[in-house]
Design goal:
The structure is a homodimer. Chain A is α+β, with helices and mostly antiparallel strands. Chain A has a single domain, classed as NADH Oxidase, CATH 3.40.109.10. The first copy, chain A, has 8 helices and 5 strands; from the N terminus they run H-H-E-H-H-E-H-H-E-H-E-H-E. A 4-stranded antiparallel beta sheet of chain A has the order 1-2-4-3. The longest helix of chain A has 25 residues. Chain A is globular and about 50 Å long. The two termini of chain A are 23 Å apart. The relative contact order of chain A is 0.23. At the A-B interface, helix 1, helix 2, strand 1, helix 6 and strand 5 of A face helix 1, helix 2, strand 1, helix 6 and strand 5 of B. Chains A, B: It holds the Pfam family Nitroreductase. Chains A, B: Its EC number is 1.1.1.298. Chains A, B: It comes from Streptomyces monticola. Chains A, B: Keywords: Flavoprotein, FMN, NADP, Oxidoreductase.
Chain lengths: 196, 196
């Protein structure tokens, strides 16, 4: 069964794309990240909430601060990657719904008036957008190294505020030598999909 | 700035892809969904947890039961779509980690021994995989209509169990007449991305 997407694109985005653990020193430019955003911003979210926010950790001083919060096994590669990005979800996304969902501005004061509801929606929809972002990094011909192995409270305190919750840190660049671990197994179709 | 992914693929997956609200009656086959899964199963998750599970609601009787749990505005299109899929997250994903992360089977009894930790990880990583799945549906040349407007507890009770939490329902098919609402605005790059 062939898909509409051509095989080279399938390989680029999924089949040959892998979580990179080493990178070359070729820089990742602002223009590349902007091109990624301008593509993946169209990925769907509930109510068009689009709560994802990103902090590009570029300066050596900021990178050093980020590395101190990473788990031991993630420190070296996060310090060495051409770019490290903190992906976070904005819990106060409802302040933008009058622009993002202009036909239903009232959701700010109804569906999303309570902070715990917003925290939940920010997490789930921020995660959807984080996945689109990873696909977009690969679409740019770059390798992504997403990580959740870090001190979430520490990164939030150091780089964000109480209204922005970290989702993951993603190292980005061209893959370097021995960039990949062996591909891990996946569940079979019949283990994941049932029909009623 | 051009991406490595060709422009036609960019359009197919993001720029011209839209959340469909009507569909033709062309069927969506098991082979198509299997091809989608076999592509997007490679999308990365934390610890390779891959907690996403899917229920294809095919029989008219099951579809009718699903429709009763959808919000008013989602009933007609969910009843009429060639295929409706319940995407859910398996909270007991740690039962598979010995296969999925063979070099660290111990995470089952350490990192993920507590159910609230698993609930959180299932939600976030299930959402990542739901996003890959939506991209995959588009890669198959199909339109997706993801929805969170339904009775989550009702759908869980009717189609799942206590260990599987619904993430969204996705209608799938070829877009029909007037399938799209106008494209909603997106936040500008500078509103989403900051640099330190």
């Amino acid at each position: 069964m062939s898909l509409a997407l051509d095989a080279a694109a399938q390989d680029l985005l999924f089949r040959e794309a892998r979580t990179a653990n080493t990178f070359t020193d070729e820089p990742v430019t602002e223009e590349q990240i902007q091109a990624v955003y301008d593509l993946v911003k169209y990925g769907p979210t509930a109510y068009n909430l689009t709560p994802l926010r990103a902090v590009l950790v570029r300066s050596p001083e900021a990178r050093e601060r980020l590395v101190t919060h990473m788990d031991e096994g993630n420190k070296a590669k996060t310090g060495a990657a051409p770019l490290a990005v903190i992906l976070a979800a904005d819990i106060e996304f409802h302040e933008e719904t009058h622009r993002l969902l202009p036909f239903a501005p009232g959701i700010k004061d109804t569906v999303f008036s309570e902070r715990p509801v917003r925290e939940q929606a920010a997490q789930v929809n921020g995660a959807l957008q984080a996945a689109y972002f990873i696909v977009g990094i690969r679409a740019a011909g770059l390798a992504a190294g997403p990580m959740t192995g870090f001190d979430f409270a520490g990164v939030q305190k150091e780089f964000l505020d109480d209204d922005h919750t970290p989702l993951m840190v993603v190292n980005i660049g061209k893959p370097g030598p021995d960039a990949w671990f062996p591909r891990l197994p996946r569940l079979a179709y019949d283990e994941v999909v049932t029909t009623v």
